[in-house]
């Protein structure tokens, strides 16, 4: 009699779990894997090994969140698996496998290990979707941080370019003035030697013009 009951229980247990997992059930979650979009040609095919990995990762996720409650892969129940990979799953209590773990606990556990889950399947928040669990605040905050960093980088870059241009033009102006001054000095020295009044005036006048218009400076000076 007792044997019969035990056999009956063992036979019933998985049936009960499978019954718990239904599309839209309160504690169930829908998952969608977009392998083609994420991996293109290198996309692996979803099979029972991948299913096993998912169960193992979820059991790990639950253990990690609950501080080592003894979740096994048998506590992760999958149902309604479609070819273009999506399915529903539900987590059952390690103490009593006919009692589902509240969805809020599972949700927190998944958020807690989202990166580990993603990386186990070489996917990200967009290509591995938990439909009832929108991407975490953490990733949104990171995203904002990234765009701020980009904006900051652009502004700093522009400021640096402006500073370089300013310094560059300053140096160029300084060099031009210096050469004009040097040439002026050379000319006055020459004129001290020749002591010619009229040319002296002409030279000073053209030098002054040259000072105002640097481009023509050398042309004017080479005449002498
Ligand atoms: C889910 O699977 C069950 C059992 O295979 C089936 O009866 C049910 O119609 C499926 N539900 C959906 C929404 O595909
Ligand atoms: C498991 O939970 C079910 C449903 O709440 C209950 O009927 C059953 O007695 C429990 N089994 C054990 C071993 O606690």
UniProtKB/TrEMBL annotation:
Keyword Transcription: no
Keyword Metal-binding assigned: no
Location(s), subcellular: Cell membrane
Keywords, ordered alphabetically: Cell membrane, Glycoprotein, Membrane, Phosphoprotein, Signal, Transmembrane, Transmembrane helix
Its membrane topology: Single-pass type I membrane protein
Designated name of the protein: Collectrin
Segments crossing the lipid bilayer: 148-168
């Amino acid at each position: 009699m007792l044997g019969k009951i035990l056999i009956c229980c063992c036979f019933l247990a998985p049936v009960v779990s499978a019954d718990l997992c239904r599309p839209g059930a309160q504690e169930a979650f829908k998952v969608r894997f977009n392998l083609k979009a994420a991996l293109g040609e290198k996309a692996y095919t979803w099979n029972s090994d991948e299913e096993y990995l998912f169960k193992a990762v979820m059991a790990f996720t639950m253990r990690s969140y609950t501080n080592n409650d003894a979740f096994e892969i048998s506590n992760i129940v999958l149902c309604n698996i479609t070819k273009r990979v999506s399915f529903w799953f539900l987590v059952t209590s390690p103490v009593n496998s006919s009692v589902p773990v509240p969805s809020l606990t599972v949700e927190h556990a998944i958020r807690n290990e989202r990166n580990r889950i993603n990386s186990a399947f070489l996917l990200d928040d967009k290509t591995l979707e938990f439909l009832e669990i929108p991407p975490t605040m953490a990733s949104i905050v990171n995203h904002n941080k990234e765009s701020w960093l980009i904006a900051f980088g652009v502004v700093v870059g522009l400021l640096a370019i402006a500073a370089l241009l300013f310094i560059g033009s300053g140096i160029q102006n300084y060099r031009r003035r210096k050469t004009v001054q040097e040439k002026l000095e050379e000319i006055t020295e020459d004129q001290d030697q020749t002591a010619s009044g009229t040319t002296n005036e002409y030279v000073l006048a053209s030098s002054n013009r040259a000072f105002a218009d640097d481009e023509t400076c050398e042309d004017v000076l080479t005449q002498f």
